[in-house]
Each structure stands twice: as structure tokens, then as C-alpha cells.
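User: Predict the structure for this protein chain, please.
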Amino acid sequence: MPKANAKQNVTISLDRETIQKAKIVAARRSTSISGLLARQIEILVGEEEAYERAKRQALALLDQGFDLGGKGPVSRDELHER
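Assistant: Here is the predicted structure, written as C-alpha cells:
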């Protein structure tokens, strides 16, 4: 069984201009293009997981319903009493 933190390589294709710009961004952040991409993908995956978790919680709350303190339905006559 593979280790949980085992790394695997991924190959991508980018145009030369994008690669040159990515090298500059990576250098400014004291990392490599690979490190830069890995970090951005980790952020993206984390955001997606957080969104899915929040969505499940929100749907569970909607299924549960909310007590808004009302008395329930009233008749038309009761609504228009003066």
C-alpha cells in the first residue's frame, strides 16, 4: 500500500512565454515552477474540499429546518381582525 505522503510526478505542457514568466514568479518566491504549481494545486484542492464541506453543512441545516417562532397558519378572518 502506498504511503499517504508519497509523491508522484505530473507532466504539463505550457507555452514558452508562460514558462519564462513562471520562472520569474517562482524565483521571486524562492521556489521552483514545480513547487509553485504544487502549492497552487494544494490551495485549489483545499478550497474545493472546504466548499463541499460547507455545502453539505448548509444542506443539512436546510433539511433540518428553522424554528422562526411563528404560531402556524391562521385564518383569513384572524388576519383581518381589528
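Residues 51 and 64 are 20 Å apart (CA to CA).
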